[in-house]
Design a protein that fits this description.
single chain, about 270 residues, mainly alpha, Receptor-associated Protein, about 85% helix, about 0% strand
C-alpha cells in the first residue's frame, strides 16, 4: 500500500468512521433508541387492545398479557417463513403465496403464544388471590378503610396481574369512576370464580357497610384448600403422564442393559 492508496481510501474511511461514530453517539444521547423502543411497545399494546375489542383474541385473560413475547414469536415465524419460502424460487406463484403462508403461520404463532401467556396470567392471579384476601382482611382488622386497604394490599402483593388489577380499582376514583363501577368492570374482565367472589364481598361491604374481615379470611382459607386439592390432582396426573416415556424409552433401555449378556451368549451359542 502506497501513499496514494492511503490518501484515496484510508483517509475517507477514517473520516467516514469518525462522522458515523459521532452521529451514533448523538442519537444515543438524545434518547432515540429509548423512544423507538417505547413506540414499538406502545404500537403492539394498541394492536393488542384493538384485536381484543374486535373479538380476534376471544380467550379469557387476553387483556392481562403485558409481555410482547407472543407478538415477537409471531413476527419471527412470519419473517422465517417468508425468507424460507422465497429462497426456494423466484417465480410469480411463489412470490404471491409466500406472504399468505407467512401471515397464516405468524398469526397462528401469535394467537397460540398469547393464549398461553393469558393462561399463565390467570394462574398467577389464582395463586396470589388467597394472599390478597388475607392481607385485605388484616388491613380491615387494623382499622383501615376499604380504599386504603385495597391500595396497601396491592402494594404488598408481588408484582403481577392481580396487583395491577387492584391498583386499577384504587385509581378509579381519580379517573372519575365510582368504586362500584370499577369493581364491576374488574369482575367482568377476569373469569375466575374466586376472584369474582372476592370482589362481590368487597362490593357488598361498600354498599351495605357490613364487616368483611371474617368473610375474607374464610375465603382465603377456602382458596388455600382448593389450591392444595388442585396440586394433588396435578401430582396424580403427573404419574399418568410419566407412564408413556417410561414404557417406550426408559424400560426398553433398562431391559436391554440387563438382558444384553444373555442375548450375546445366546447369539454366540446359535452361531456355533
Amino acid at each position: 500500500m502506497n501513499i496514494a492508496d492511503i490518501l484515496l481510501f484510508g483517509v475517507p474511511l477514517l473520516v467516514g468512521s469518525f462522522l458515523l461514530s459521532r452521529f451514533l453517539i448523538q442519537i444515543i444521547r438524545e434518547g432515540y433508541p429509548r423512544r423507538v423502543k417505547a413506540e414499538f411497545v406502545s404500537l403492539h399494546h394498541r394492536a393488542n387492545r384493538k384485536l381484543i375489542d374486535k373479538g380476534v383474541f376471544p380467550f379469557p385473560g387476553a387483556h392481562l398479557v403485558t409481555s410482547l413475547r407472543g407478538w415477537l414469536a409471531g413476527e419471527a415465524v412470519f419473517l422465517a417463513t417468508l425468507l424460507i419460502t422465497l429462497s426456494y424460487g423466484s417465480s410469480l406463484r411463489n412470490a404471491l403465496l409466500s406472504p399468505f403462508l407467512a401471515i397464516l403461520l405468524g398469526g397462528a404463532a401469535t394467537f397460540l403464544s398469547l393464549r398461553e401467556d393469558a393462561r399463565k396470567q390467570i394462574d398467577r392471579i389464582r395463586a396470589a388471590l388467597p394472599l390478597a384476601s388475607f392481607l385485605f382482611s388484616m388491613m380491615l382488622e387494623a382499622g383501615m378503610g376499604s380504599s386504603a386497604a385495597m391500595q396497601e394490599s396491592a402494594r404488598a402483593l408481588p408484582r403481577g396481574p392481580l396487583s395491577r388489577e387492584m391498583e386499577e380499582i384504587s385509581r378509579s376514583h381519580s379517573l372519575g369512576i365510582s368504586r362500584a363501577d370499577a369493581i364491576e368492570r374488574s369482575r367482568r374482565r377476569i373469569p375466575i370464580d374466586d376472584y369474582r367472589l372476592f370482589l362481590n364481598l368487597i362490593l357488598q361491604g361498600e354498599r351495605l357497610g357490613i364487616g368483611l374481615s371474617q368473610g375474607l379470611r374464610e375465603l382465603s382459607s377456602r382458596m388455600m384448600e382448593s389450591q392444595g386439592h388442585r396440586a394433588e390432582t396435578l401430582a396424580q396426573k403427573a404419574a399418568v403422564k410419566m407412564l408413556l416415556p417410561l414404557v417406550f424409552f426408559i424400560f426398553p433401555s433398562v431391559f436391554l442393559i440387563i438382558l444384553s449378556p444373555v442375548i450375546l451368549n445366546l447369539l454366540e451359542m446359535l452361531g456355533r
